[in-house]
Each structure stands twice: as structure tokens, then as C-alpha cells.
Amino acid sequence: MPMHDAALLAEADAARLLAYAPYSRFQVGAALLAEDGSVQHGCNVENASYPAGLCAERGAVAAAVSRGQRRFLAIAVAGPSGVAVTPCGICRQVLREFSPDRLLRIVTRDAAGATVARTIEDLLPDSFGPEALGPR
Ligand code: THU
User: Residue 89 burial (CB < 10 Å; 0-12/13-18/19+)?
Assistant: First the structure.
């Protein structure tokens, strides 16, 4: 049975504690659940050269892919309490790369702290993906 949303969000909360965000002071954690049941964490890693900063979601994708995982079921994203955090546009595109059926679950919290689950298709409709390029 796939990991419960609440458990995945708890992993994202744990990942968030390691965020390096001295400039925005906006710490984010992500937990990415692969089809084999493994979970990889990511946190935002900012930089004195601001555009070089990395979002938590892309950190989690890099961690998972570098461990041989390319098929994912869900990603949970956790930010500061009281704020609705959803993946930025760049992260949506990166997540979509690994969701050919566009059913990847994106689990977040709304401003009241309630769990919200949507698919990558919900967050990035009519998207461009690797299938459009044909076999490589
Ligand atoms: N951030 C993430 O890591 N993930 C999100 O979903 C939203 C934003 C980071 C980027 C930057 O380090 C900080 O939050 C403020 O935008």
C-alpha cells in the first residue's frame, strides 16, 4: 500500500529542518516517494548569488534519480506553517518529466494546515514532456 499522505508530509517536515535559506528565511522540505517504496528528501539550498538557489523539490528529484529511481508516486512539500506552499513553475516541469501518466500526487498543506493532494496534471495542465520528443 502506498505511503499515506500524512506520513509523507511528516518526512517533508523533517527534510525542511535542514533547509539552507539564509536569504529568504523561507524554509521548505520535500519528500519524494518512488514506486519501490523508497523516499528521498530535499530541502531548499539558497546561494549568495540568488538565482543559483535550488528548491526543495528539485533537490529531492536529484537525490532519487541519482539513486536509480525514475518512477514516482507522490511528493510532499512542507513550508512554514500558515502558508500554502506549492511547487514553483520550474519544479512542476521537472516533476512532470518523471510522470508520463501525469498522475504524480503532489501533497501540500493549505494556509489552515489542511492536507491538499493534487496531480501534476492539475498543477501543470497541457504540459510539454519527453514523449513529445519521441524515442531518444
Ligand atoms: N521554495 C522551494 O524550495 N519550494 C517551493 O515549493 C516554493 C519555494 C524555496 C525557494 C527559495 O529558496 C525560497 O523557497 C523562497 O522562494
Answer: exposed
Q: What is the tens place of the pLDDT at every residue in 79-126? A: 999 999 999 999 999 999 999 999 999 999 999 999 999 999 999 999
Three-point CA angle 77, 65, 120, nearest 5°: 45
CA distance 8 to 13: 9
94, 93, 55, 96: which is closest to 77 by C-alpha?
A: 55
Tell me the catalytic residues. 57
Q: Whose CA is nearest to atom 6 of ligand 1?
A: 87
Element (H, E) at 60: helix 56-65
pTM, 2 dp? 0.97
Dump the DSSP string for 20-53: B-TTT----EEEEEETTS-EEEEE-B--SSGGG-
60 with 42: CB under 8 angstroms? yes
**Stretch 63-68: mean pLDDT, rounded?**
98
50 CA distance to ligand 1 middle (Å): 12
Rounded to the nearest whole angstrom, what is the distance from the C-alpha of residue 24 to the centroid of ligand 1? 9
